[in-house]
Amino acid sequence: MIAFYADHFVLPLPAGHRFPMAKYSLLRQRLLDERVLGREQLRVPEPASDEQLGLVHTADYVRRVAGGQLTAGEQRRIGFPWTPAMVERSRRSVGATIGAVRQAVRDGASANLAGGTHHAFADRGEGFCVFNDAAVAARVAQRAGLASRVMIVDCDVHHGNGTAHIFRDDPSVFTFSIHGERNWPFDKPASDLDVPLEDGCGDDDYLVALVRGLEAARAAFDADLAVYLAGADPYAGDRYGRLRLTKDGLAARDRLVLEEFRARGIPVAVTMAGGYARDIDDIVSIHATTIRIAAELVAKGGHMKERSIEVDHDRWFVKLGEHAPHPGIATVLFFPRNQQRPYRVAEVPAARFASQQELEALSDDDLLALFHASDFMDYVHEGGAEAHHPTRFAQPLPPDVGTGES
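-> structure tokens emitted (406 positions)
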């Protein structure tokens, strides 16, 4: 997996400043030391241009940031003193997410080893966020024709207020924020989907809420690109998080989100977002696990693109099943976009459909014939766990499907 970094563009901060700037260089070194990524997989991004920033931010705000014309109050709201290095660092961080989006479209996933600056609004910054990297990258992708419908999944513990406000009237970008309900920011503009959590929420409750949120997002929006903000601050040891997730819980969160998009064939750009644990090694460890999981999924073969068809104004995704009723027979699974109805399954000759790629090569007419030859799938339970073995199958596939004779 390719990842973008800009930690050598250092933002100078006063002694004792609460932002853990050192985490970025430590993260890159950790990934190299543990051989999660090789040096050849690490890229330095280009700085975001005024034109790119202007797809989201007002021209006046970009001009005043670049020219050192922010007021003292604006600088306090951002949390960083203005310096030319702050401007360069902020441009590079946005450029890294733009790079990750472009790379993800090619490879299935990519990462910015920083970013996640979701508190930046169109005309101002706040909460250690100067420019909104996810918003700008989404707009750049749309302008370049890389995507038309972008989902931003924000798992930072703080509500993505800037992102929600920027896209409040834009149906082409879906904003999803799972966050501490009573945590800062106290003014939370509505996202397309907000999942507020009570203080002290732990692994189990968090993951249940996340799964339900992902299901609701899937039902509401057909994305062709995703940006994932993988904040380390829901961690129990975070100074400002107020939640109680363990490192294992955060790893499960990352896997849920990333496998959700991989299974749907949606490229995803990963950003690090916040993290303020008292021990900086905890922050680095959490971020490194996020990148490790993303890299593992890319190594499995990138994003598992699944075909889909429209039947009676509803979209069904199609994939080759992992279980078969008997030798010589494979199964094709159809599952609905909203995931609120049973799967359907059709039997096919195994020799004709030996791989997902062969299934993807079918025409829409052949897929429709398969769909109409399918039936609802039941499940058997072994030891109290769902085993995903179909207990009954549909009528056999029409003989001409997949042969080129239909």
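Residues 307-386 form one domain.
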